[in-house]
Design brief:
Protein name: Integrase
Order of helices and strands: EEHHHHHHHHHEEEHHHHHH
Subcellular location: Cytoplasm
CATH class of the largest domain: Mainly Alpha
CATH superfamily of the largest domain: Intergrase catalytic core
Main location: cytoplasm
Number of helices: 15
Strand order of the largest sheet: 3-4-5
Structural class: mainly alpha
InterPro entries: CB (IPR044068), DNA_brk_join_enz (IPR011010), Integrase-like_cat_sf (IPR013762), Integrase_catalytic (IPR002104), Integrase_recombinase_N (IPR010998), Tyrosine_recombinase_XerCD (IPR050090)
Distance between the termini: 55 Å
GO molecular function: DNA binding
Oligomer: single chain
CATH architecture of the largest domain: Orthogonal Bundle
């Protein structure tokens, strides 16, 4: 995409957004001579233009796919907006420009240029690709600006920019951390389970799809996993060890944010669900040590050649389940519309919050919840605290259950 002479931003011939990796900018828009560029002898990175500079910043997060995706999305949106909407490079943005951009995020117009048509997510190479699925909620706008502030602060520290245009933003006193609100109540969670248990199982494909939905909900809820952890973990990550009393306990080894490894208690109930799911695929109930099959298996495909589920595919599976559960509530009458809307907006991360909320409801020790979810790094000596691990496993197994009816 060569942006040499831009037509009016809202004209019929206005150029469409192009993904960052395919973006080619004219010298005037590249930022090579941006008005906020620092002197050449001050820079500590090799980038000569804005795209190269933000690529250098993004490279710092290459070891965390989820973070990299989120940060690239926000940087990409800003660069596309500033060159297509303002006709200026990122390194010429002013504080006032960014205030305008903040308002734009809440209502990206013209929608034909910026917003995806339909609900189907398109590949970045598709001509119908757009950087937005719709207007951002206030919380998402704030998060986007936090990410961009980190970008500008780093580019300033690296000597690429003369100053951070977002540093002038009005500083608010940090509010107390709010309670988690994006989770399902026990009643809504029961509706989700009922929905999955009522899924059709007439054909082989329907049976495998229903088994997959049940397994995904089970492992996300009982293990409290992030979506990225579910899609990157293998069956061979389950293992069993004995405590001092020769009691067998199963664990799931998960690599979380920042490549930090943690052990998640695999309760008897979770192991039973694992066996149930594997039997549906004609596999032995217990995974072998080092087994490379992904945690979530494809509905169709040759055994042994399974590819890990993508985060996009996981999103679609859960959206289908939550959508069916919402329809189940709406069928009860119009007074259920509010609750149905909550279910329809749920996502994989809601299940993680749901699991944490329900565990604390059942009086699971907060230290155990913290360690199960990987909210803080483990100390070097934590590998020797087997008695504490066993108490955490026992408390999790005793008080945190899914209780499928069938």
């Amino acid at each position: 995409m060569e942006l040499l002479a831009l037509p009016p931003a809202d004209g019929p011939a206005a150029p469409l957004p192009t993904p960052l990796e395919r973006l080619r900018l004219s010298p005037a828009l590249s930022g090579a001579a941006g008005s906020n560029r620092a002197p050449a002898n001050a820079t500590r990175i090799a980038a000569a233009d804005d795209v190269a500079a933000v690529t250098a910043w993004l490279a710092r997060y290459a070891d965390s796919a989820a973070t990299l995706t989120a940060y690239r999305r926000e940087v990409e949106r800003l660069i596309l907006w500033t060159v297509l909407q303002l006709g200026k490079p990122l390194s010429s943005l002013t504080h006032e420009d960014l205030l305008t951009y903040e308002r734009f995020l809440a209502d990206p117009q013209p929608a034909m240029r910026w917003v995806l048509t339909g609900n189907k997510k398109l590949a970045r190479s598709h001509p119908g690709w757009r950087p937005f699925a719709g207007p951002l909620a206030p919380g998402s706008v704030r998060q986007a600006m936090v990410i961009l502030n980190a970008l500008f602060a780093w580019l300033t520290e690296a000597g690429y920019l003369a100053g951070n245009p977002l540093a002038l933003a009005r500083r608010r006193r940090a509010p107390a951390r709010p309670r988690i609100t994006r989770y399902l109540s026990h009643e809504l969670w029961a509706t989700v389970k009922e929905t999955v248990e009522a899924m059709p199982t007439e054909s082989a494909r329907e049976r495998l799809h229903a088994a997959r939905c049940r397994w995904v909900l089970s492992v996300l809820y009982l293990g409290g996993l992030r979506a990225s952890e579910l899609t990157s973990t293998t069956m061979g990550s389950f293992f069993c060890r004995r405590d001092a009393q020769s009691t067998e306990r199963w664990w799931l080894e998960v690599t979380g944010k920042g490549s930090k490894i943690r052990l998640v208690p695999a309760t008897d109930e979770l192991i039973a669900e694992l066996a149930r799911y594997r039997r549906a695929h004609a596999l032995p109930p217990t995974p072998q040590f080092g087994e490379t099959r992904p945690l979530v298996l494809p509905v169709i495909g040759k055994a042994g050649s399974e590819k890990p589920l993508s985060r996009g595919a996981l999103h679609l599976i859960l959206k289908e389940v939550f959508g069916m559960a919402a329809a189940r509530l709406r069928a009860r009458g119009p007074e259920w519309e509010g609750q149905a809307a909550v279910l329809a907006s749920a996502s994989a991360h809601w299940l993680r919050h749901t699991a944490g909320s329900h565990m604390t409801d059942q009086q699971v020790d907060l230290r155990f919840v913290r360690d199960n979810f990987g909210h803080s790094s483990l100390s070097t000596t934590s590998g020797y605290l087997h008695s504490e691990d066993d108490a955490r496993h026992e408390a999790t197994q005793e008080r945190h259950r899914i209780d499928w009816k069938k």
